[in-house]
Task: structure prediction
Amino acid sequence: MGMKIEYVNPFIESTYDLFSTMLECKAVRGDIGVGAPKANPRDVMALIGLSGMARGMVTLSFPVETALNMVNRLLSTEISTVDDTVSDAIAEMVNIVAGGAKSKLSGHDRPPIDLSLPTVLRGNSFNVDYPSGSVWLEVPFDSDLGSFTLRVTFDMDDDK
Amino acid sequence: MRALVVDDSAVMRKVLIGALGRANITDVDQAADGVEAVSATESQDYDLILMDWNMPNMLGIDAVRKIRENGKTMPIIMVTTEAEKSRVIDALKAGAQNYVIKPFEPATIVTKIQDVLAKAAG
Result:
């Protein structure tokens, strides 16, 4: 896949937007690396597919503590275990990040990119297989609500 | 004053119900997709609808079209991640009065709610 490093920037900007508006705190990114998503028993992972002129996938992986902090900030609750409400919230987070990024990637003269409905994975063991040759860009973040990781892989028609 | 909140995310519905509360609207029904939204408007009169775009079963924009085809004239605000200009134009053509892009600051959506209700009241 023709994954250009600058393609990750709209996703980073959308993550900043999400935190500064709905979560009322600042997210700070670390160094961009390369790494595919993998199961971690301490994580809740949300993923969403892109189709149309950009094809690929976006994931957000949150340690349980971060996920709970985010949901409790969003809803002014005191939820202490990962339940359906937490999964629902994490799904909406990846939807908002991908949605914001796709509009930035689409520009004014390109057809819109379509998003799949989000999926949330949690648990001790799962395998997700990706097309061989996929290059995943990995962006670690830190915030007042805890750390988390954004991962993105896709290619665009412009690459050809 | 009765409102309908339409979003497939229960968490987002809670956030939006909170925003409606800040605009002094506490009589709120919920729908999880466009089909439920259209059905709700057939059995209940609403003064305002907050409508997501991407939902299973029926998209929000198709629900807006259907609600307008059924002769309903209440203000509808799209609340969605769909930020492209073409999508905003499509929503307004379909019959939405206003448009809020996710993510939003709580104060932003409260202002939009108050604006569309003030315009609807003439």
